[in-house]
Specification:
By secondary structure, the protein is an alpha/beta fold. The protein is built from 14 helices and 16 strands. The chain folds into two domains: about 150 residues, no CATH class; about 240 residues, Alpha-Beta Barrel (TIM Barrel). The strands form four sheets. Strands 7, 8, 9, 14, 15 and 16 form a six-stranded parallel β-sheet that branches. The protein has a four-stranded parallel β-sheet with strand order 2-1-3-4.
C-alpha cells in the first residue's frame, strides 16, 4: 500500500507505520512523486488537497502532520456512526484519521500548558477524551476498523492483518508486606500508632503476623499463582525497589532478603520490570540505579517498567527511561480514573514531540486499575467488577490488548479490601469460560 503526500515528515512516517502495521502488518510506503503514485498498481491513498487519480482513496489532510511546532489547536468533535471524530476534512473518509490518530497517540495535549492534579501529574480533566466524552472508548481502534473496512471495499485484493484479542494481567508490588520484614524502628513506630489510636484489632493482628501465627495480609502471591495456573496466564510484575522509604515509597527495602527472594521467585516464572519510585521523578538517576538493583538480584536484564503512582511528565520521563535502557513501558493510563489515556488498546511506539522523532520505547496502554476504582472513583467491589467487564468488552470488540493493573495488597486478606479478590477471581473465571480469547 502506498500513500502520496506533497511533503514527507517524521510525523507522517510515524503514523503511517502505526496505521499500516495495524491494518496490514506492514508500514504504509510514502511517496511525494505524483507519477510513481499514479503508476502504482496496488492500493493507494492520496493524502493531499486534491484528487489525483480515479483509483485512489482520497483523504484531505489537516495541517498537523506537516507542522513542526506545538501549539493550541481548535478541535471540534462530531459524531459519525455512533463514535466521536475530529479534524473533519473533505475526501473519501469523513475526517483526517492520520492527523487525529497522531494527536491522540503522541499525547500532543500533554505538551501544552495544563492543570496538574494533586500528585503533580497531567490531570485527566484537561484531556480532549474526557471533555468530549470518549475516555471510555479505544477510539483509535474503532476508527481503524472503519478505515480498514473502507480500504477493503475499495481494494478487494488488499491483504489485511487479522488482529487477536489479548488479556495481559499486570501487578504492581509497591508494598510487598503489611507487617513483616520491616526494620524494627518502622514496626515499633507503627505499633505505637496503633496503640495511640486505640486500634486494638490492628495491634493484635500485627503481633500475630510478626509471631508467625497468621499470614501477612498483603501476602497474596501464592493465591495469585493459583489463579493463573489453570488458565496458563502469563502476567507481568513490577517491583518497587527504592533504597529508602518515603511518603509514597513504602515498600520494604531491597536490602531485605525477603524482598530479594520474592523478586527472584517471580523472575523465575514471569516477566518482571521495575516500578520506578516516586523519588525517581525528582532524580532521574535513581531510575538507572533501581533498574541495576533488580538486575543484580535476578542476574538478568530489565527492559520493562511502569511508573509508581503513574507519575510521569512528557517528554522528560520517557526520555529518562530510554536513557536507562527501558524498551517497554506500561504507564500509559491515568492514576486517578479508568479509561484510555491515549484512546487506544494496542501497543504503540512513543513519538517524542520535543525532538520530532519516533523512538523504540514501546508503550503498552492500560485501561483498568483497581486502585482507581477503590480510592478515586469510590466504587464498591461489585461496581468495580461491572467496570472491569465493561472495559474488557470494549477492548474485545476491537481485538485489542486488555491490560489490567492489580496490587498484591488488594488480593490479600486486608479487611479494607474485603471482597476485591473475590471479584477478580470471578472475572478471570468468566473470561476464561467465554472462550475465543488469548491469555498473555
Amino acid at each position: 500500500m502506498i500513500l502520496f503526500a506533497n511533503t514527507i515528515t517524521h510525523r507522517l512516517k510515524y503514523i503511517c507505520d502505526f496505521i499500516g502495521t495495524e491494518i496490514t502488518g506492514e508500514s504504509i510506503r510514502i511517496t511525494d512523486n505524483v507519477l510513481s503514485f499514479a503508476e502504482h498498481a496496488g492500493p493507494k491513498i492520496n493524502y493531499s488537497d486534491e484528487r489525483l487519480t480515479q483509483e485512489e482513496l482520497w483523504i484531505q489532510p489537516y495541517l498537523l502532520l506537516f507542522e513542526k511546532n506545538i501549539h493550541e489547536l481548535q478541535i471540534d468533535c462530531f459524531e459519525i456512526k455512533g463514535y466521536k471524530a475530529f479534524f473533519k476534512t473533505n475526501g473519501d473518509f469523513p475526517f483526517d484519521i492520520f492527523a487525529a490518530s497522531f494527536y491522540l497517540l503522541s499525547r500532543y495535549e500533554e505538551y501544552l500548558p495544563h492543570q496538574k492534579d494533586m500528585y503533580e501529574r497531567y490531570a485527566y480533566e484537561n484531556s480532549l477524551a474526557y471533555k468530549a466524552g470518549f475516555l471510555n472508548k479505544p477510539l483509535v481502534n474503532i476508527w481503524l476498523q472503519e478505515f480498514k473496512a473502507l480500504l477493503q471495499a475499495q481494494f478487494p485484493a488488499l491483504s489485511t492483518r487479522s488482529s487477536t484479542f489479548n488479556f495481559l494481567p499486570t501487578y504492581d508490588i509497591d508494598e510487598a508486606y503489611s507487617y513483616k520484614h520491616k526494620d524494627w524502628k518502622r514496626s515499633a513506630g507503627a505499633a505505637i500508632k496503633d496503640l495511640l489510636r486505640r486500634d486494638w484489632r490492628r495491634f493484635r493482628l500485627r503481633r500475630k503476623v510478626l509471631n508467625n501465627e497468621l499470614a501477612d495480609p498483603f501476602d497474596s502471591y501464592e493465591w495469585i499463582d493459583n489463579l493463573h495456573r489453570p488458565y496458563q496466564l502469563k502476567p507481568r510484575y513490577f517491583f518497587l525497589v527504592a533504597e529508602q522509604t518515603g511518603k509514597f515509597d513504602r515498600n520494604i527495602l531491597p536490602k531485605e532478603i525477603a524482598l530479594q527472594t520474592l523478586i527472584r521467585q517471580h523472575a523465575d516464572k514471569y516477566d518482571i520490570g521495575i516500578h520506578p519510585s516516586w523519588q525517581s521523578g525528582d532524580d532521574s538517576l535513581l531510575i538507572q540505579q533501581e533498574k541495576e538493583r533488580v538486575e543484580h538480584i535476578i542476574k538478568k536484564k530489565i527492559v520493562a517498567s511502569r511508573q509508581h503512582f503513574i507519575r510521569f511528565t512528557l517528554p522528560e520521563t520517557f526520555r529518562h527511561l530510554i536513557e536507562s535502557g527501558i524498551k517497554k513501558d506500561f504507564s500509559m493510563g491515568y492514576g486517578s480514573i479508568n479509561g484510555f489515556r491515549a484512546s487506544v488498546a494496542s501497543p504503540f511506539y512513543w513519538y517524542d514531540l520535543g525532538t520530532e522523532q519516533a523512538t523504540y520505547l514501546l508503550l503498552y496502554p492500560f485501561c483498568y486499575m483497581e486502585a482507581n476504582s477503590f480510592f478515586e472513583q469510590k466504587y464498591s467491589s461489585q461496581q468495580a467488577l461491572a467496570e472491569m467487564r465493561y472495559f474488557y468488552n470494549e477492548v474485545k470488540k476491537v481485538n485489542g490488548t486488555f491490560i489490567t493493573i492489580w496490587h498484591n495488597t488488594f488480593l490479600g486478606t486486608d479487611k479494607r479490601f474485603s471482597g476485591w479478590r473475590d471479584i477478580y477471581a470471578r472475572f478471570v473465571n468468566e473470561i476464561h469460560h467465554q472462550g475465543g480469547r488469548k491469555l498473555l
